[in-house]
Amino acid sequence: MHQFIWGFDGKKWSESDMIRFEYGERLRINMINDTMMSHPIHLHGMWMDLYAGGDLDTNPRKHTVNVQPAELLTVDITADAPGQWAFHCHLLYHMEAGMFRTVAVVRSLEGGSINADA
Ligand SMILES: [Cu+2]
């Protein structure tokens, strides 16, 4: 497995910036797994509503979603938790190799403090 670089959007954690969500926004993330392994993706602090089409209010609510090889998986998130949160693959050797991001829920995407309460 050491010939692989594990990350998001082709970058491992040490090469990446924080992902910023604006406090209170409802957002959608599309995750495309272009590897040959499943990745259990875990977001701390907020729920991910697994997009299954139909009535959005009845979609399953998850902290961790399993993204299969060659799968496009979509989740909806309400950024209702100010602060910094881990977003990572739950296979620890993937996380340790770089499949990790910090999500910052901020007051404004225009810049300023990363603390939504500031
Ligand atoms: Cu993984």
Automatic annotation (TrEMBL):
Protein name as catalogued: Plastocyanin-like domain-containing protein
InterPro entries, alphabetized: Cu-oxidase_C (IPR011706), Cu_oxidase_CS (IPR033138), Cu_oxidase_Cu_BS (IPR002355), Cupredoxin (IPR008972), CuRO_3_CopA (IPR034279)
Any GO molecular function: copper ion binding
Keyword 4Fe-4S: no
Domain of life the protein comes from: Bacteria
CDD domains named in the record: CuRO_3_CopA (cd13896)
Pfam families: Cu-oxidase_2
The entry's keywords: Metal-binding, Plasmid
Native species: Vreelandella sulfidaeris
Occurrences of domain Plastocyanin-like (ranges): 6-106
UniProt key word Metal-binding: yes
Entry-linked SUPFAM superfamilies: Cupredoxins
